[in-house]
Amino acid sequence: MTTTVERPRAKVPAAQRTPRRPGRFRKHLWSYLFLVPMVLLFGGFTVWPLMASWWYSFFDWDGVGTPSNWVGFANFAEVLRADAFWRAFWHSLVFSLAAIFVELPLALVLAILLNNSWLRFRNLYRLVLFLPVVATTAVIGIVIAILLDPAGGLVNRILLDTGLVDQPVNFLGSTSTALPTLLSIDVWKGFGITLIYWLAALQTVPKELQEAAEIDGAGFWRALRFVTLPVVMPIAIVILLLVFQRSLNTFDLVRAVTEGGPDYATDVVPTYIYRFAFDPSLQAPRYGFASAAGVVFGLLTLVVTLLQAPFLRRRLDGGRR
């Protein structure tokens, strides 16, 4: 019969012992306390509105008192049947397409140029390109409306004086020109932040790789294709998603410049929701219907984002090879 003798465990010095959770919590108590304001604000202005919009979407509610008229999925059915909602969703998608296929590559080209140390006054150029981002959208809307005014606006005066047009162009008052005009303004205003994204991504490219490419005789374009772009590809996917989400939720610019007009030619989903929830011209606001439209828009945004995942995954895998 074999007897197993247990060896005494070696004592771990007190200095090497892992502190218990209560002790660790007390040690970092001040850190957690500093997080309390952020948690409260996030819960009050993000989590609660998100949950409340789902709840309100099942009621025919005007925003006064407690919602009681339960209608189930009737609001969702009305949203899905509304041609105005789908037209607004298409306009929101067009804003995202313009940001992805115009703003994103153009910002990358300028970021590569401004990332070179030999360029003089490059910090000044960055500042000038970033200024529209920090400018207030309401102020931009007023200035743009004055500049594009068909009755004496600076842009129309220049076009008439140079002979490019025979009569003033109503950029913001015509259904054929209002949306392209807003797209151009949106690309100009968001260009600076996308440029900063790309500049930050280019800073992650190791100088050793660039120097090795120069030693091997690779020119600028070959180094860009085989060194710079593969390295920044993972960050580029994040930039793409950030730009897509920002442009898809364009609201303040449309609200400040055209309010969705003329004839809803520039209406986007956020202004569509705002109109049913807060428009003073409505005798009885439809908060329930507006909440349902917001929920549908959120789900559609999620679907569009997930549809990009396979393509982005293939691009990421190709960039790692």
TrEMBL record:
A Pfam family assignment: BPD_transp_1
- Report membrane topology: Multi-pass membrane protein
Where in or outside the cell is it found?
Cell membrane
Domain named ABC transmembrane type-1: which ranges? 89-308
Q: Where are the transmembrane segments?
A: 29-51, 88-115, 127-148, 178-202, 223-244, 287-312
> Which GO terms are recorded in the biological process aspect for this UniProt protein?
transmembrane transport
* Keywords for the protein's UniProt record, in alphabetical order: Cell membrane, Membrane, Sugar transport, Transmembrane, Transmembrane helix, Transport
Keyword Magnesium appears in the UniProt entry: no
The main place the protein resides is membrane
Q: Name one GO cellular component term.
A: plasma membrane
The similarity comment for this entry is: Belongs to the binding-protein-dependent transport system permease family.
By what name is this protein known? Answer: Multiple sugar transport system permease protein
Q: Which organism is it from?
A: Kribbella caucasensis
